[in-house]
Design a protein that fits this description.
- The protein has 3 domains: 111 residues, Helix Hairpins; 49 residues, SH3 type barrels; 81 residues, Alpha-Beta Plaits (2-Layer Sandwich), CATH 3.30.70.100.
- The chain has 290 residues and is of the alpha+beta class.
- The strands form 3 sheets. Strands 4-3-2-1-5 form a 5-stranded antiparallel sheet. It has a 3-stranded antiparallel sheet with strand order 6-8-7, with helices on one face.
- Helix 1 packs antiparallel against helix 2 and helix 5 crosses helix 6.
- It contains 6 helices and 10 strands.
- Strand 7 and strand 8 form a beta hairpin.
């Protein structure tokens, strides 16, 4: 019984001591802590307002959208981080050791995170040098698509078929890159019979292309004889159009060319072969066209 009473007395003393420490901390730092939280709240609000203002100003100055977002976000981070440091000081926390510890941690982690960090460095290079922007059509190695997002670690492309391609930025910087802006060239080949006039067929195709507003006038379509095939004169049709509309446009153009040829009596031949059959006994020869 005596031991239990002694234990309870110790617990009460410890609780009283803890309470005294809390009261002392509240008395000493309570008002400062309240000021610190208020400063942090104001810093977050000001950071958000400055971020929006910087982004609007950059867009107004016709700056690239990706770069504008990056600069605006960077300004917000600096403001909020500064407010956070002031808040820590108000709580009675010395920030110098924290800064030293964070710096040492970052230095040590940089060796283990060398590969991921190289993506961030490459992303920063892309944002600053702007070899492409959001909405451009690019080809990087064997991948091609419209740029949807440019982040520090990666870039996202979308294809006309709805696929999303995520490319780490370290595989973009230093590689051969083709940028055709918002458009891309497509081509198709259509054959006409040797009995038809190729100049007339070319004019018909040019007339079909002129009906589609999505087909660019500059650079204009290119229509001409590609080659002389076994069964047809092959005409190549090349034109530029917005990348996101390219697949549907190609299908529509091909259908209209077929309709126009049929209406103008231009023949699209099928492959033909002359097969000569020699009789085994008589040596007679006959020809069959297939």
């Amino acid at each position: 019984m005596q031991e239990a009473r002694t234990f309870m007395e110790k617990e009460i003393v410890m609780a009283q001591h803890a309470l005294d420490l809390i009261v002392e901390y509240v008395v000493k730092y309570g008002l400062q802590a309240l000021y610190g939280l208020l400063i942090l709240f104001i810093g977050i609000k000001i950071g958000g307002w400055v971020e929006r203002s910087v982004e609007k100003l950059c867009v107004k100055k016709h700056m690239d959208l990706t770069l504008a977002k990056f600069l605006a976000a960077g300004v917000k981070i600096v403001i909020v981080a500064f407010a956070g440091l002031i808040t820590l000081e108000k709580f009675g926390i010395t920030i110098s050791p924290i800064i030293a510890a964070v710096s040492a941690t970052i230095f040590g982690a940089s060796f283990a995170l060398q590969a991921p960090l190289s993506n961030y460095a490459a992303g920063l290079s892309i944002i600053l040098t702007r070899p492409f922007t959001i909405g451009n059509t690019v080809t990087i190695q064997e991948y091609s698509g419209v740029v949807e997002e440019v982040k520090l670690p990666y870039t996202v492309l979308s294809t006309p078929s709805g696929e999303r391609i995520t490319i780490p930025n370290k595989h973009i910087v230093g590689e051969v890159l083709i940028n055709s802006r918002e458009v891309k060239m497509t081509e198709t080949v259509v054959g006409i019979s040797y009995g038809d006039d190729p100049e007339r067929a070319i004019r018909i195709i040019q007339g079909v292309l002129a009906k589609f507003p999505a087909v660019l006038k500059t650079p204009g379509p290119q229509v001409g004889i590609l080659e002389f095939g076994d069964s047809s004169i092959n005409i190549q049709v090349r034109y530029w159009a917005p990348t996101k509309e390219l697949v549907d446009l190609l299908h529509s153009v091909n259908l209209e060319i077929h309709k126009a040829f049929k209406a103008q009596s231009v023949t699209i031949p099928f492959p033909q072969r002359d097969v000569h059959i020699i009789g085994a006994d008589s040596g007679a020869q006959s020809a069959v066209r297939v």
